[in-house]
Design goal:
With 283 residues, the chain is α/β, with parallel strands linked by helices. The chain is built from 11 helices and 9 strands.
């Protein structure tokens, strides 16, 4: 007969296992997974430290802990991710949203748009987090979201349905702006901006995201440059292009924006001090 383990003992042993496997924030990961298996919040665990756990509760936890130790993203194991105060479904059909991208939404939310019922386009929407978050922040706006991946669009529509926003956000398939005719007051994009040469330095977790959501070309900024080139034909006069970009890409992309006759070009840093966002107006 095996000794029964308590909630606290399981959290401690799981944390030690994650530390050994070099998982970032090991205790936090352990709490999230145990709370998920038990159908409770992390705070609930603190009130139940002495509660013994049954074998039936430990079996699914062991599987999740092993997968996390092998580098599978926590968000994939939980099936959800928090973004701008909302819970979104997430899995291997789309990129796991990063905290920096929440900041991009905040930057846009602080912008002044020329008309109340403006038109917004999210390019490379993935799981739909940017488009759906903007639809919530701008209740009078019309929002269109495009992606080249059918799988990502299916996930985005599921998130739209969960949040009751599919009547406000139109999802459609497009390679950047190829399948679009209309114009917008805002075009926002968090496109793949990683060079294929950098694959070997990415975290294990990141490599669980689809390649199409991560990698551009040899330089990493090829897709962003294509969008910068296409966007003027789809922006209303004075319209805004808002981009999330990779490390060390701002100088070259700012110069490219100038060459393409954008104006009021601004770069903004993320919370870790990296120049991560470019804003530029056209017309």
């Amino acid at each position: 007969m095996t000794d029964t383990k308590t909630v606290l003992q399981v959290l401690q042993s799981t944390t030690a296992y994650f530390e050994k496997h070099q998982i970032e924030s090991p205790r936090l990961n352990a709490e999230h997974l145990l709370a998920h298996v038990l159908g409770k919040t992390r705070m609930d665990l603190y009130l139940e430290f002495e509660r013994p756990l049954s074998e039936a509760e430990l079996i699914p936890l062991r599987d999740l802990v092993k997968r996390r130790g092998q580098g599978e993203p926590l968000q994939h194991l939980l099936g959800t991710v928090e973004f701008c105060g909302q819970t979104f479904l997430i899995d291997n059909r789309a990129l796991v949203p990063r905290p920096e991208t929440e900041q991009l939404v905040e930057v846009i939310a602080n912008c002044q748009f020329p008309i109340a019922n403006c038109r917004m386009l999210d390019v490379g929407t993935g799981s739909g987090v940017i488009a759906l978050s903007l639809a919530r922040k701008f209740p009078d706006a019309t929002v269109v979201a495009v992606d080249i991946s059918d799988d990502a669009l299916a996930l985005a529509r599921e998130n739209g349905a969960r949040l009751g926003l599919n009547d406000r956000v139109q999802f459609q398939k497009s390679d950047l702006l190829e399948n679009l005719d209309e114009r917008f007051d805002l075009i926002v994009a968090n496109l793949p901006y990683v060079s294929m040469q950098d694959r070997n330095i990415l975290a294990r977790e990141v490599l669980h995201d689809p390649d199409v959501a991560l990698f551009a070309g040899p330089a990493g900024d090829e897709l962003v440059r294509r969008l910068i080139d296409q966007a003027p034909r789809h922006l209303n006069a004075g319209g805004l292009l808002a981009l999330e970009i990779g490390v060390n890409q701002s100088e070259g992309l700012t110069e490219f924006l100038r060459q393409k006759n954008y104006h009021d070009i601004q770069s903004k840093k993320d919370y870790s001090g990296v120049t991560r966002f470019l804003l530029a107006s056209y017309g």
